[in-house]
Amino acid sequence: MLRIYLPSLFFAFLVSTATAAAPDVSGLEPTGVQAGQSADLVLQGKPALPLSVVTDYPGLAVTVSEDGKSLHVDAAQAPAGVAFLRFHNPEGASDLIPLHIGLLPETTETEPNNHWRDAQNVAAQTTINGVLHAGGEVDTFGCELEQGQTLVAAVDANTALASPMDAVLQILSPEGFVLEQVDDAYGNDPQLTFVVPTTGRYFVRLFAFPSAPNSTINFAGGKDYQYRLTLTNGPFIDHLFEGAEGQLNPHGWNLGEGVDVANTPGRHHYRRLLNLSLPANVITQGGEAPVPLTLRTRLQGHISPREAKRFQFTGTKSAALRIRVRAQALYSELDPLVQILDAEGKLLKELDDVGRDNRDVDASWTPPADANYTLVLQDRFGHGGERYFFETLVEEDQPRADLTVTANHFEATVDKPLEIEIQIARAGLQSPLEITATGLPEGAKVTPVISEPKGDSSKKVTLKIEHDGSTPFSGSIQIIATIPDAPGEPIVATAPTKLTGIRASSIWLTLPVKAAEATEEK
Prior knowledge:
Blueprint: E1 2-4, E2 24-29, E3 32-34, E4 38-46, E5 52-54, E6 61-64, E7 70-74, E8 81-89, E9 92-93, E10 97-102, E11 106-108, E12 120-121, E13 126-131, E14 139-145, E15 150-156, H1 158-161, E16 165-172, E17 178-182, E18 191-195, E19 200-210, E20 226-232, E21 236-242, E22 248-253, H2 268-271, E23 280-282, E24 291-292, E25 298-302, E26 308-315, E27 321-326, E28 336-341, E29 347-351, E30 361-365, E31 371-379, E32 389-396, E33 400-404, E34 409-411, E35 418-427, E36 433-438, E37 444-446, E38 449-451, E39 460-467, E40 473-482, E41 491-492, E42 495-496, E43 502-504, E44 507-511, H3 515-521
Parallel strand pairs: 1-43, 3-10, 11-13, 12-14, 23-25, 24-26, 34-44
Antiparallel strand pairs: 2-4, 4-7, 5-8, 6-7, 8-9, 8-10, 13-20, 14-19, 15-18, 15-20, 16-17, 16-19, 21-22, 25-32, 26-31, 27-30, 27-32, 28-29, 28-31, 33-35, 35-39, 36-38, 36-40, 37-39, 40-41, 40-44, 42-43
């Protein structure tokens, strides 16, 4: 789970007595820019003046136009990846808006291109920013390919842009026949590879269904059905293993020796941010010999069809262990199944899905004796391949708690305290938690609240923030929890973003100024 940290910034405004609206910026068009270039993007939604924008992405400069309708992006010094932008004014703030920074030349989809005979001509190495504008729409692109080349076609839409679409991607022959088709690969976003059988002009076709199923039986579309379609017959990294010594192990297509990971197109620019920040070892051995597994060492590897990876570790009687396998969280196709065996091979425990919508493993298990044990990892259905990869971690099961709030921005009013509800998920933690907010400006105060290990407050508390209205504030704060009189790192509350699996660790807070004082100041 990626946690986004935004800088704690303070902005002062002279506010008139007239009531303005908070900005409701819902997206950008197009949704990205090539690294090293600049572009002007249209703001979607309902921007409201005055309007400012902030980001903590390195090397990226962004400026809102005077009319608040567009955004100038300068990515001359920015690396490839995903930036998050916050639009705000004295009345409030928008959600975090993703901006993709790619490595290939960017182009914009143009109509008409529904039929393959009307396909838009594109280069074999490009990123297309498109929109399925209305129901029934299909977008088609034609490119010249040579025999033996491997074309990679990857869509960023629902997962990476929060577009409400479940896309389908097809490769058509020069005569218009469907040769390849794929639906989901990265959540609802498709990706495919195609080895060109003969030189010619081939077509890539894209259409979608709603990501939230309904009674519609037609192709879906709308102004928010945005996508980025990357096409390349050059190097493309699907996923990346990062070793303990800093070595990078890319996996993908058309990769030669000495791949420059930072400057190679691929999913890794987005997904590498989802990795656990612990030492890692890459598993290369196969066969029946178990791989030694040291507690708190992350292991990465692939599963072949009908393969079972075996790991050996030492357990201590009554010392609970937390066993995790991440695959779905990394957009791997693996559905992990874990079995714990004793020294004689007897099955002691089987671990499967976290929940209905999460097929990864995250469970606690207590060894019955001081002994060596074997962890067997396989795909639930015996599948495997290059895109069936995983990360596994076994460690002491420490008491812990997660704090979450419902939004990544809050707007207060002068006449009453701002109340923020905080959900608390405890896992074995039997200590009280003191919860407060940090980063508040002068004139604002918070009264810490206690979450007791039992009762209603163990699961939910309400934090109140008051301010005297003397000074306006727009900036980032954090909500944290600590165990009273116990050392240790605070627990930081996280908030949802538009993108699945990515949560914000800072919250944007807007505090207005009293109307009377604003008038006097003016």
